[in-house]
Amino acid sequence: MAPTATDARAAGHDSRAEGRSSRAEGGFTALPRWAKEPVPGTGEQVRSVPDGVLAALRVRAGELGVPLGAILLAAHAKVLALLSGDPDVRSGYLVPGRTGPLPFALTVGPGTWRRLVLDARRAEAAVLSSGTGAPSRTGPEAVFAPVGHEVDVPPDGSVLLGVSAGEEGGGLVLRLRHRTDLLDADCAARIGGYHLAALEAIAAGPDAPHDRRNLLSEDELRFQLDGLAGPHRELPDRRFHELFEERVRRHPDAVAMVHRNRCWTYADLNTRANRLARALLAEGLGREETVAVVTERDLHWAAGVLGVLKAGGVYLPVDPGHPPGRIATMLSRADCSYVLTEPDSTTRLDRALATLPGTRRLLVPDITERDTDGTDLGLEIPADRLAYVFFTSGSTGEPKGALCEHAGLLNHLYAKIDDLVIGEGTVVAQTASQCFDISLWQLLAGLLTGGRTLLVEQEAVLDAERFLDRITEGRVNVLQVVPSYLDVILSALERAPRDLPDLRCVSVTGEALRGELVHRWFATGPAVRLVNAYGLTETSDDTNHEVMDRAPATDRIPLGRPIANVHQYVVDENLRPVPLGAPGAIVFSGVCVGRGYVNDAERTRLAYRADPHRPGRRLYRGGDFGRWRPDGKLEFLGRRDAQVKIRGFRVEIGEVEHTLLRVPGVTDCAVVVTGAEAYGRQLAAFCTGEGAATADDLRERLADLLPAYMVPAFFHRLDRLPLTANGKTDRKALTALAEELGPARDSRGAPRTPAERRLAAEWASELGVPPGRIRRDDNFFDLGGTSLTAVRLAVALDRVISPRDLAGRPVLADLARLIDTRTDGNP
């Protein structure tokens, strides 16, 4: 496919961190690129202002005491704000008699059209009074010319769009000239339409709020609402477990699930799940009651998930390694009265249940291995019944549980089956933590088609070579990982090339996918399809798939098109679609949207709305910003809030800060993100207070309250937090300080031996720490190391050590001595 103009950004383009707007070089307002078939040259669109509108505008100009040109300029500024997603408009104004445009600035804040026109007049007067000012050297992308003048748009200049007005045949016309390689004729025509709509609004009522006026045509609105939606797919009027039971009847002896050296057939799995479902119902499980499954990722877990669904319960995944306080909070928030677990997963669970005396615990093997009724239950469960609840990080200090229904689950499973090509006999690897929403499709999708699920043990995931061995030996066809782990796999393959003969498709999700990684995959990895998947826990997991059979022409990797039965809109603050190509909030509608957050009416009210475009449908707005591309695919631009992704998990900075404030002696705190934008991100905490708690004390206390991925890598103590001019915590200053400080330091010795020096260099590379800051008695994990960076380190050191070695000897000098014993002192 030929590259679109969206991919070919002009030099100097830089998306803002929030993803909500963008600036061109020199700080000028950037226009969205939209050219389906870029062609060098210049085009022109001419739009006539209706006579009735023109007459009304002349009346309005007299009422407001401004020339007609001020009204035209106000409309132009409104359109630029709409196109850029930024109310602070900075473009070019062509002053008569000058050779080039002068900078023109206007803030298009909330208010009436009257106010906007008067502000535009003042801004215009400021430009005209400057008179002798020099044109900007970098040049604006949009230039406005007053009535009677025209804008020259060279085919290779910085100006993309020139807007002018002139009299023709006794009427007024708008003339839009544009670079055809970046704005095609259809796009220019739409922009002309926005100008006319703004003028019509001013003519109709100057005291109406301009921020409530939609400038898009009915055709564009209908295209965005329907033409960009996922295709319609009729879902069967059965739930996942019923479709699975059909597969059981068709091939009961086929292998359904494999873990280590054990495997269960479809009949084995079905019988055990049925026994668990009957046991839950015998205990009194009611409609849409929550059942927690607290097991490792093993065969008991698989039986537990299916058993809960068959019984009509709501599946709640809980990692048995979570801190007891976290487990108790999740169970309590979800009103969970039933827990399925296994003998080796109860240590922390027991401590959590001690605070929840009404919760009943059932041991999975005690139920599944008894010779009791294992036949199908045949319960009637409607499509809109709740299927599961996944907890994610919450900004208020408490995790929030996203509730999703059976229809959304089934729709997502079919999307995976279609786009990842999962059929009868396909082997799907289950690699993700059970608390990561992608774990569910990895577990279940293959069971709908007569495929097989391979449960990859965590020890293999933490060793790249062992993981590749497991994938090869298990004859895995379909795999999904986070991009940071794909990077690890690629590094291992680049160091020691090997065949992955059965692998047919790899999907990545959970983090933004870098173009560099995609190019490496197709250049040095196996000749395997790559799918960039995007979605939210609240939208039944992935809603977009970008399927790639080759490296794209650019480094910008789109999110892809919506999957079947999913509608997505890119909207403004009032949930109105923004122009095609303009940045805005990504919102979701359709069967994918869940029911809300469990027992959290306020957060549900803020995020879940009625879809104003589709009566009876729910709409979900998260915090992601993006824009549509000319090829009909969605592009991710960033977040609007303090949510980040750490190792693929969503982390609300606010929850970490709230938890830190519960530690005695901490009076104020702020947590910021450090490290590379892509896959090296870590949390750094700054604390104030009179207490003498050390970084180790704080780390240990948070480890009792939060999952490991939410515990900051670095802790720093300050007398007070820096503030911005308006009195808010200066997070930009803290981020810079965190990058400068790295881990808390004291005076320790530099690496001495060759092994220590090599190790220090590799630690610095993997951890993003300046090499000179690594000391011989540094602890890898205290410096911000994680299980994933440990895997990367093992690959970088040619597997002379393993992640398990590093866990047992995390201090640099100790690990270096181990390397010396294995390499005879020649690291």
Automatic annotation (TrEMBL):
Region (Disordered): 1-46
UniProt-listed GO biological process terms: amino acid activation for nonribosomal peptide biosynthetic process; secondary metabolite biosynthetic process
PROSITE patterns in the record: AMP_BINDING, CARRIER
GO function terms (MF aspect): phosphopantetheine binding
Example of a GO cellular component annotation carried by this entry: cytoplasm
Gene3D superfamilies: 3.30.300.30, 3.40.50.980, alpha/beta hydrolase (3.40.50.1820), Luciferase, Domain 3 (2.30.38.10), Nonribosomal peptide synthetase, condensation domain (3.30.559.30)
Pfam families for the chain: AMP-binding, AMP-binding_C, PP-binding
InterPro entries: AA_adenyl_dom (IPR010071), AB_hydrolase_fold (IPR029058), ACP-like_sf (IPR036736), AMP-bd_C (IPR025110), AMP-bd_C_sf (IPR045851), AMP-binding_CS (IPR020845), AMP-dep_synth/lig_dom (IPR000873), PP-bd_ACP (IPR009081)
Domain Carrier: 750-827
Start-end of Basic and acidic residues biased regions: 10-23
Record protein name field: Non-ribosomal peptide synthetase
